[in-house]
Fold:
Amino acid sequence: MGKIKKLLITLLIVNFASHTFANNFPKSFADLAEKLMPSVVNISTTTTVITNSNPFPGFEFPPGSPFEDMFKEFGTPQKRKSAALGSGFIIDEKGIVVTNNHVIQDSEDIVVRVGGDKEYKATIIGADPLSDIAVLQIDSKEKFIPVKFGDSDKARIGDWVIAIGNPFGLGGTVTSGIISARNRSIGLSRYEDYIQTDASINSGNSGGPLFDMNGNVIGINTAILGKGGSIGIGFSIPSNSAKKVVDQLVKFGETKRGWLGVRIQVVTKEIADVEKLDKPRGALVASVADKSPSDKAGIKAGDIILEFNGTKIKEMKELPKIVAQTEVGKTVDVKVWRNKKEITKKIKLGRLETSEDFKEKKKEEPKEQEILEIKSLKITARILTKEDIKIRKLPNQTTGLVITNIDENSPINYLNINDIIVEAQKKKIKSIKDLENIIESALKSNQKTILIVIYNNQNQRRYIGVKLD
Structure:
């Protein structure tokens, strides 16, 4: 009797689990796909590419040869048309289309195919390389079927999603999967907070929508991991981030992002220990741009931003996105950690796109000078000169040491040659002796970590926690 009872209970549990899973598992995506397909478009672009023909047919110089580039100049310039494919989706019945910036970048002609057979010319309303988003206008007075943005913050790992797009030019392709992860950074753009999915995404899917089971767009499919084809790891821009960019592009034709005017870096455990912060959190201010909102508000290099406009900053990467999404001209409270205590600064945000920060600076290498050894760090370095400061466009009063060689066993072997050590333990470095004295003093007081400040090869000011032997 006992065995029969146990068997019945087991069967009930198995039946209940199977029934629950069956209820959550979609029987088919057909109805949803049929409803959404008219709103997803295929995009083809053409660009003129100019190349020089080989002046010596049948003969090629070895790769890297100094003659390779020289003889290319003597070739005959030839123009050819280059085509590219992508995807997009309609968000307004007037024919406004959202896609990726890289799909339409540098294009001369844009053709949008709707419903698999109708083709229309399209023009660019606005494009934003930083978020890789572009908005197009279909050149037609017809009415189109739009889709809506959903709330990507409500999307959970494990939720079902479908992607519709134009992979390899095979338009109207539907794939399904789940949300595999959230808040991914893969080094493609300035503001990264990707949704990761295992729904098959391939070349040509870029710019297409990622839908939830309610038919709302929760992501813009942007990238895949690996070359050639899908391996079940695709990345989408969350709709909540995308919508803010799209709204600005539609309204202004450009973006208007908030700007603090600071360069920031990760707060490591070593830096948190030196600064007597309870744990690694926030964003460390590596440098402050002259006359920037932060400079005017009294933010200093070495401050750790813990909270911005009421939002706690858990990780450094959160701050740029939050600042960018804040209205230009708004005055916000910023809480910072300075001299082992928390203080609050009021900052009126500027606009990133009109700032000097927005412009890329070219990197130039300094000339060689006398090289000296720093045994305690197992590196060699030279004194920073006025010529270095001029070439690298550093602040006029900058002093420090330019690293010329780094031992494999050095405690700073993760730095690079030509990085400049400008401070140690918050004291300016003017000579090799300055640095050695600070290290010697730290070792005598049994300090295991010191804080140094460098300018890296991109002339970005960075704070580094160095573990001493």
